[in-house]
Write a structure and sequence with these properties.
Length: 384
């Protein structure tokens, strides 16, 4: 039997809750941010929208120690319950009440009994409740309902892992110790910044990617020698809505966020890398028959070809960089492939060591190019 501290709502670790595990969150104030970076160290600042996989990449290269991973167990429970709680507590719940029970659940559930069970979880998660939740998640009617409305729910990637029978059974067992995969999939929205020392002299800084968190990004974007930016982009978010407003398509949000920060003058001073993440999730969605072109109307390629779709997305991002060619390199990965993450981060640090001497020279050339472009534009305008 487990007691949960908090069930409903978003999974950010906030100040009001118990002190978060040390390495999961670290707020940095503007004055201390740049001074915390040693002059001779190499630093990657991870930026990107919420859910793109920044923290997952950090966990892949720097596993959470066991004593901290135990603190994530409650969040795993929350990941499993978040969608049912959301469904029953919002207009979806009202919609369900109107529908005949059979249209929603094919098993023995009904809305009323589920509400009672959900209310019970506010304090206790026992064997009986775990069984109910498991069979609810695997009820074909419930699965269909969630699938149809998947664009409204965050947590899908985490839930997909936690409700698999072999994982669910382990998690429910008393004395459960999370393995590396469990902590990888556990979704906790990052607030503030999390700094890890990857190797001696090599630091990675994770940031929160939700809209409110992005306002804090400039804290870490002051120019420093040895600092680079790594944008993380999800390749699989095209059929999802932003958690922030439940309206904006996340693919659109991702592109416009990239466009905005690419042109930000702080970002312009730093070398940029892009990691296109969640290739495995994109492949799974394509396999499940979800059509990219239903969501991105400008795509006229093959909806059954994840490679073609990912290349299309990558080109949309890189075309914003056509003029300046500021993106040093881009990568396509699945963060659940830990070796791939380690190789990618090593490569960024390695390239960057070679690249450094010429970065300042590039910046001078870029300024000259901007000047030339503006002169050319004003010449064209005056000749009309
Ligand atoms: N299958 C799969 N899941 C992934 C991958 N990358 C991330 N995830 C899952 O996606 C969810 C969100 O990932 P996070 O790393 O928390 O996203 P984030 O960018 O840190 O989000 P914020 O902290 O809100 O800015 C987690 O449940 C991860 O386990 C991936 O490549 N494949
Ligand atoms: Mg995060």
């Amino acid at each position: 039997m487990r007691r949960l501290s908090k069930l409903v709502g978003q999974l950010s670790i906030s100040e009001e809750e118990e002190k978060p595990p040390q390495t999961l969150r670290q707020d940095v104030n503007p004055s201390s941010a740049s001074s915390s970076i040693n002059k001779h160290q190499r630093t990657i600042i991870f930026l990107g929208c919420g859910g793109s996989g920044k923290s997952s990449i950090m966990r892949a290269i720097h596993p959470i120690p066991e004593f901290l991973s135990l603190k994530l167990i409650d969040y795993m429970y929350e990941n499993i319950l978040n969608i049912p709680t959301f469904i029953l507590g919002t207009d979806f719940g009202k919609e369900l009440k109107k529908r005949k029970n059979q249209e929603f659940f094919e098993n023995e559930f009904n809305h009323h009994s589920l509400m009672i069970y959900m209310a019970k979880t506010a304090s206790i998660w026992d064997e009986e409740f775990a069984k109910k939740i498991y069979s609810m998640w695997w009820d074909p009617g419930f699965q269909k309902f969630v699938f149809e409305r998947r664009s409204s729910f965050a947590y899908m990637d985490a839930v997909h892992y936690f409700i698999q029978q072999r994982n669910f059974k382990r998690i429910m067992r008393s004395g459960f110790h999370p393995c590396r995969e469990d902590t990888f999939y556990c979704m906790i929205k990052t607030t503030g910044f999390v700094e890890i020392s990857y190797r001696s002299g090599y630091v990675c800084v994770d940031s929160g990617g939700q809209r409110t968190e992005r306002k804090k990004w400039p804290i870490h974007l002051q120019y420093e020698e040895g600092k680079v930016i790594c944008f993380v982009v999800s390749l699989s978010e095209f059929d999802e809505l932003c958690y922030e407003d439940d309206v904006t398509n996340r693919y659109e949000e991702g592109l416009s966020n990239w466009d905005t920060w690419y042109h930000n003058e702080l970002v312009q001073k730093l070398p940029i890398y892009i990691i296109f993440n969640k290739m495995d999730v994109l492949e799974r969605k394509v396999k499940n028959g979800i059509k990219f072109s239903d969501y991105v109307k400008s795509y006229d390629g093959d909806d059954n070809d994840p490679e073609a779709i990912s290349e299309f997305i990558i080109q949309r991002y890189l075309e914003i960089d056509t003029f300046f060619n500021r993106v040093v390199k881009h990568f396509k990965i699945s963060a659940n492939n830990f070796d791939q993450c380690v190789n990618t981060i090593n490569e960024i640090f390695h390239i960057d060591e070679r690249y450094f001497g010429i970065h300042d020279f590039r910046r001078i050339v870029e300024h000259l190019l901007v000047g030339l472009k503006e002169m050319e534009q004003s010449r064209i305008q005056s000749s009309h």
